[in-house]
């Protein structure tokens, strides 16, 4: 994907951090296909909660940041290959990812949720969905969970959540499992006539954090400081309020 947006902090902040070349110019990856967190709008630019958070923390860090869209399947590999300096893409922290990369403190938390067609006879989000077809985004927390817990189901994986949701809308899968907030966004908009959420999956509440390379501890701490600042002074709440009428922090 080639969608890119650029922004720069105020000159005074750039001067203040001019001695730290690592943080002066940063490239940040997001997915661009995960509304309302990150998506490409009709103006062909990246938007969403992740993008707004990135812009604000970069400003607090005095960094000149370029945000680029990267397909989800290769997003960690791209970070490790130094194609970009960090990932702000609603990435959930888990033990497998922590073996490869490092994470900041969380900037929101989410459980997994289950969506089904409105006329479905499936009512229990804690089911193992035996004999059912379950859709999920590949290489994501939801697919990892599904592979571990839905061994009696037919699991179908898709490059993006939008594709999994489209399969549900067209009745080619019986269930979609996904992070709650993007699934809720879809059910309330595109999927409002076809589908519903039946509940959250117990025990799946997890942190979404900024990812960096393991060796970049100084950068990780700069992100943490900036995140703490925007939470403390109310900027985080203001950004969040553009997308959610409830607390996701």
UniProtKB/TrEMBL annotation:
Among SMART domains, the record links this protein to: PBPb (SM00062)
Q: Which GO terms describe its cellular component?
A: cell envelope
Q: Where is the Solute-binding protein family 3/N-terminal domain?
A: 25-247
Cited Gene3D superfamilies: Periplasmic binding protein-like II
Q: Which UniProt keywords apply?
A: Signal
User: InterPro entries annotated for this entry?
Assistant: SBP_3_CS, Solute-binding_3/MltF_N
User: Chief location of this protein?
Assistant: other
**Which cellular compartments is it found in?**
Cell envelope
What range does the record give for the signal peptide?
A: 1-23
Entry annotated with the keyword Disulfide bond = no
Which PROSITE patterns does this UniProt record tie to the protein? Answer: SBP_BACTERIAL_3
Q: Sorted alphabetically, which Pfam families does this protein's record hold?
A: SBP_bac_3
Which family is this sequence assigned to?
Belongs to the bacterial solute-binding protein 3 family.
Q: What is this protein called?
A: Amino acid ABC transporter
- Source species taxonomy: Bacteria, Pseudomonadati, Pseudomonadota, Gammaproteobacteria, Pseudomonadales
